[in-house]
Amino acid sequence: MFYEPKLGHGLPHNPFNAIIAPRPIAWIATRDGNGAENLAPYSFFNAVAYEPPQVMFASTSAKPDRGDTKDSVANIRETGVFCINIVEHAMRDAMNLTSGPWPRETDEFEAAGLHRAACETIACSRLADAPAALECKLTRIVQLDGLANFTVFGEVTGIHMRDDCIVDGSFDVTTFNPLARMGYRDYTTVRDVFTLNRPGE
Prior knowledge:
Blueprint: H1 16-19, E1 23-24, E2 26-31, E3 37-42, E4 45-49, E5 54-59, H2 71-79, E6 81-86, H3 92-97, H4 108-111, E7 116-118, E8 125-127, E9 132-143, E10 150-161, E11 166-167, E12 170-171, E13 179-181, E14 187-189
Antiparallel strand pairs: 1-13, 2-3, 2-6, 4-5, 5-10, 6-9, 7-8, 9-10, 11-12, 13-14
């Protein structure tokens, strides 16, 4: 099968994000200029550089009470900071609850019964029980083609790792089983890890 996206795929559901899978999930905590907090998951997310460490996520829709975007991007525009929390399998239901189109005044930490903790390098909360959290300072927001498509880039200024996730000096994902997004309404969990040495190593 071949199709041109502009002409449509002819299938019952769009296969695009099912093809690009699995995708890590950034559970993004933000705070607006008045101190109200938000927590929402994004699966268009990844690391993009080592030195300095940098990450990106993309937001692809808007809410009526936020104009051209959603709460996370709107808050980052105001404060210039955000915290990416890594999602473990055990928190899948809480993560899913925070994905709803809640009014801007909703505090998803409270709505999902999650514990928050203060970040160290930025004025923002983080998920206290997350396997890892990346404190980020905004470097740029890029508007992409299409309605409400924004990519947010940030420099990682602080990293939290849960002590039980460090095994023999390495951050071991099998201790918490990261959740990843597939297509449609599907997810997967990382349970198996194998190693490949690069040529010449």
